[in-house]
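Entry 14. Ran structure prediction on the chain below.
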Amino acid sequence: MKRMVVLAAALACAIAGCARPAPAPGVYAGEQHKRIVSLAPSLTEELFAIGAGGQVAGTSAYSNYPAQARALPVIDAASWINLEKILALRPDFVVGLPSDASRTRGLERAKVPAFLMKDDRYDDIYATLDELGVLTGRIDAAGQVVQRLRSRVATLRKQSAAFRVHPRIFVVLDVSPIYTVGRGSYIDSLLTMAGARNVVQSGLPYPNYSAERLLSDQPDALIVAGEVKLKPLLARPPWSDLSAVRRGRVYQVPPDLGLEVPGPRVAMGLAWLVRVVERLQS
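Output, structure tokens:
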């Protein structure tokens, strides 16, 4: 019954014009033996989280978590996919993001279904886990992951709701030029859940930001993406002119935390943000 409900929901979504298409005929037969190629790090993580990692035959260049994903054949780069390499892996289907629509068109001619799933927002994590559970025959496992994540996130949100101070945060995604997170983005949602405020007002999810605007904003703290090398630049403008830098309120995201990747590490990332906001209460 549960399986039929999920299938019905997927079909209803397709009829309503959602980004998630209806399943191809027969794709649910023998699901746990299907070979999968993943075009997105978030989807790779989610497949492993629900126990379908053994079905993943190939993945994207940036899929580096969990460790087992690093040993898989890489079938794409930033803007292209190696169609011949994908077909050589003999996948039963491919999973990707809506942004992969143009580069997966060649799969249609080869009769390899491509399922494109959103990962832009916090709620997309749970919807995508459910869908992957259906596609891989692991509905119960996916449901358990969803329930565990929701429970942990609810606990963390209850903790952050007690904070009296809601610091203004600037997230550094890149430094040359400066890129950050805007309103409505995945990380922006996590900041809100952690009890912080995003200093950036832009409606773009990941806007380019001027040094002048950053200096005008004077955030209470900086959160720096794990791979960004900001520390050597802190003694130079505009960073040296920020009160947050002078007060030592610069927090680098720990390796393997996955704060920027919407997926099963969401609770880990939120827990870290809650600890940061807790430190900023005084």
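Strands lie at 36-38, 56-58, 93-96, 114-116, 168-172, 174-175, 178-179, 197-198, 221-224, 250-252. Will compare against last week's run tomorrow.
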